[in-house]
């Protein structure tokens, strides 16, 4: 069953289960795969450049999980319009035509121009040739960010209520080489996968270690909490002391696509099949943790 909020998200729930409940205590979300560009975006760069900010194909790569009984929510809005993986107080005042009236978190991401509303692309290209109004930013928060977080929270709550525990994978992709303004380590050559649980604060480490071992057995290069530890979504929903485990997974785009054309490569099918098998292994593993 698919539930949509045209401005915010697409939520796919298992059709075959009563009340669309999950078959295992596992939930996926893809916050950066949105491709519906709102007309009020009014960015100053062309559409092709804007699309480089997307986690292209990530929702599809993990999409087999839905028919396996695992709920998945994916953003409809693009990451460059508003980033669901940022806190709503990560406001970049350099973008605004007046002072933000509420508290501001000048996080490292904001300083990179990658706060709640992006100021620039990974290569440093400015996204706007104008200043944004406070009302514009608040509209994006209310129409996109809040419904996405609310919907994900409801799905996680439903799984937790049914099973007593829940494991959440926050699905992302990363370029093969970090952009000049993407992170605080520009030019870094990325591994195949990066697993982030904010140094064990958002999940029992057994979750990441199970996935890391599974991927390494299939020949993938995997790092843990380096260079990405996870950001807002795992922080907001990961509370391991309550049986709520959230893990961010970054996949290197070189594994499945041409990073210039954004088209799937010949390896796309292999990676998608591996992620399907990983999902099946996680269904079994998470069920065993609640037995």
Protein architecture, described:
The protein has one domain: Aminopeptidase (3-Layer(aba) Sandwich). 29% of the residues lie in helices and 14% in strands. The protein has seven helices and eight strands. An eight-stranded mixed beta sheet has the order 1-2-4-3-5-8-6-7, sandwiched between helices. Strand 6, helix 5 and strand 7 form a beta-alpha-beta unit. The protein starts with a strand and ends with a helix.
List descriptors:
single chain; 291 residues; alpha/beta; Aminopeptidase; eight-stranded mixed beta sheet; 7 helices; 8 strands; 29% helix; N-formylglutamate amidohydrolase
Topology:
Blueprint: E1 2-5, E2 9-12, E3 26-30, H1 47-51, H2 58-61, E4 72-75, H3 108-111, H4 134-163, E5 166-174, E6 193-196, H5 205-217, E7 222-224, H6 232-237, E8 244-252, H7 268-290
Parallel strand pairs: 3-4, 3-5, 5-8, 6-7
Antiparallel strand pairs: 1-2, 2-4, 6-8
């Amino acid at each position: 069953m698919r539930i949509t909020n045209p401005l915010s998200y697409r939520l796919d729930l298992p059709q075959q289960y009563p009340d669309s409940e999950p078959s295992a205590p596992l939930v996926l979300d893809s916050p950066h795969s949105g491709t519906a560009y709102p007309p009020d975006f009014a960015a100053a760069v062309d559409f092709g450049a804007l699309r480089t900010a997307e986690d292209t194909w990530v929702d599809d790569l993990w999409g087999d999980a839905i028919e396996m009984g695992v709920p998945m929510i994916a953003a409809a809005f693009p990451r460059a319009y508003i980033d669901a993986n940022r806190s709503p107080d990560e406001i970049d005042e350099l973008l605004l035509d007046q002072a933000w009236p509420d508290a501001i978190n000048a996080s490292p991401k904001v300083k990179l121009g990658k706060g709640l509303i992006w100021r620039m692309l990974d290569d440093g290209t400015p996204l706007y040739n104008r200043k944004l109004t406070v009302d514009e930013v608040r509209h994006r928060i209310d129409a996109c960010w809040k419904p996405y977080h609310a919907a994900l929270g409801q799905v996680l709550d439903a799984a937790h209520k049914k099973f007593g525990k829940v494991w959440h994978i926050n699905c992302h992709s990363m370029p093969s080489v970090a952009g000049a303004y993407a992170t605080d380590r520009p030019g870094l050559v990325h591994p195949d996968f990066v697993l982030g649980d904010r140094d064990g604060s958002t999940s029992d480490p057994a979750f990441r270690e199970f996935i890391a071992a599974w991927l390494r057995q299939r020949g993938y290069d995997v790092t843990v909490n380096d260079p990405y530890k996870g950001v807002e979504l795992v922080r907001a929903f990961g509370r391991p002391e309550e049986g709520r485990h959230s893990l961010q997974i970054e996949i290197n785009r070189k594994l499945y696509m041409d990073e210039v054309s954004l088209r799937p490569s010949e390896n796309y099918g292999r990676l998608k099949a591996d992620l399907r098998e990983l999902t099946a292994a996680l269904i079994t593993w998470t069920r065993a943790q609640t037995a």
